[in-house]
Structure prediction request, 715 residues.
Amino acid sequence: MLSASLHNDILILLFQLFLLLLFARVFGELFQRMGQPSVVGEILAGIVLGPSLLGSIPIFSDLMIVQSTNGTDLIEVVSLLGAMLLLLITGLETDLALIKHHAKSAFGTAFGGLILPLILGFSFCFLIPDSLLVDPTQRIVFSLFLATAISVSAIPVIAKVLIDLNLIRRDVGQITIAAGMIDDTAAWILLSIVLGLIEFGVVTAQNVLFSVGKVVLFLSVSFVAGKWLAAKVISFAQNSIKSNYKFLTILILFSLGFGAVAQSLKLEAILGAFVAGIIFSRIPSIPEESIDRLESITFGIFAPIFFATAGLKVNLAPILNPELLLIGVGLILVATISKVTGAYIGARWFGKSDHWTALSFGAGLNARGAIQIIIATIGLSFSIISQEIFSLIIIMAVVTSVLAPFMLRWTLSHVKLEAVEIKRLQMEEQLKDNILNRVHRVLLPVRKREISKSAPLKLIEARILERLGRKTDLNVTLFTISSENEKSESAQYLNVLGEFFTKVPVNKKVLVSNKALESILDEVKKDYDLLIVGATERNKNSDMLFNPIVDNLVRLSPCASIVVQSSGVAEDWRPSRILVPTNGSKASKRAAEVAFGIAYHHHDQVHILNVVEGKQGYSEMDIEGSLKERRLTFAHQTVEELKKLGESLDVNTFTEIEIGEEPDSVILKMASENDFDLIILGTDVRPGSDKLYLGPRVERILNNASCRVIIVNSQ
Prediction:
């Protein structure tokens, strides 16, 4: 049984969480409908519940602003978890490749947007009277802390504003995000240094060096050892854990673990969560679904509670004092002018940006919110800042977040889209749903037999995978079923086959089992993105398309599959001329995406073929002719769409439109007469059948093609 005091603490905590979440979500929704970031409404929800309004009522105050019997503010513990999850997501969204791509502009903008606020913010702090300082003897530490809070930008708020304005993929949006990432990372390092100085109580060169060294050591060890550990844990989870929520659990465990290490070094737990996020942002194996779940939990529950809790600590009554009000206005002006001006100068000087583009960077980076509130909360908990200064920082965060969308809309109305950027945006739109963007982990089941018989097919698969691996990060697992007596021999067999895969990382796995189909399906369920199976022979006397194992694997696979059909190839085989028949379906588009992934940029050709069903030579004026025209129009639209996709990937792409009564005959004739090396067919598995059925035309092409055939099935 719970003690009476603990029972009362839990009851109050539940009541607090109920009101904070309710008010935060309602206010957040209202502000979103007004075109403002939801974080502004969530903070204001806390202010309404706090001592400024409802919290001024004695009974309400006793419930909302209370500590547990052991002196710990339980709501702060929940709030800390929200802050850590926010920083975890921020780290996951930190795109190091993006920063590298826009390095010059991003670093220039970030440098100016960080240095000037630091200088002006630090100087402004000396105008603040001693009466508002917790410890006037620690003014330098206080000034460093407040300057850090002023200089930081809020990536979650910036990103939300850019998304709302449909600017996130624009050059200006990408550079703003990249610059914000750099600013935030630098700010966390500065914050860690400040917290290290607090540990010593006095600012000396030795203490500063010790604090910097501690941060550098933590970051270095974390990024080196952390990435290795994360990759090992992910690999173990993929192969050994069946839970649907395993990746979400791993993300949170790493966040808590790194947070604990950072906290033990007196660097602050949320820095550890941020580092954990960056580590996992570099591991492509984390499914988008798991990140979506994390964001749902964070933005739906914990983040609103965190922001509302921050607002709960704001008391507007004291800052209505003329002196405090003046300081607050000065703080907002210093923060806004220094950030916009600093980013502008950096973008113009280092990035060579034009006037309005540079001004847009400053407007975007001026948005604050989550990170600033987290920093302010840390400062209050460490007694670096007073309650009055904390309230002023929160108000500054709210005001700058509200100003950001208006400033961005105004500045960007003067920024023109260049032709290069238009082309890039069009290409991204075309590639957004590309099947290869989701393929990282590939399962390749093999059957042990004479190496001379399996080599030709594995050579095809190896060539295909090494080409796909140039455009996406692939990891291939060679998998075979064996008896206990032949396990060692099977392992050696996989080692020999692995030699064909010279340019793609390959794992080998032997499983002792007498149930081949069930074992392969169990393996492919371990978070593989693609299944590749070889079909070296067919039993034409059965109703199976390939053979029982291959047919059922394609039919039952939970992920996309590719069937490679061939009787043998030369050792120097290269698919330089690829034919992709298309009928405008999603399946045929997937086949084209695979073809573009296989083709080398300037050496290979991909031919897109659409066959319009109909008779040759009929009148354009009859009923059938009218239908023909509609089909031709659709055919032109279909092949042109795929041609644009191919050209955006720098692949030599050609289109063909033919008319014929039997499309499969036209496809076979074209493949034979034009010496194609490979035909790629996109198909869909017919649901509700206990047999694999891809259609009679696919079967005829498989039986009669003069070249190798690949079947692509995207589940």
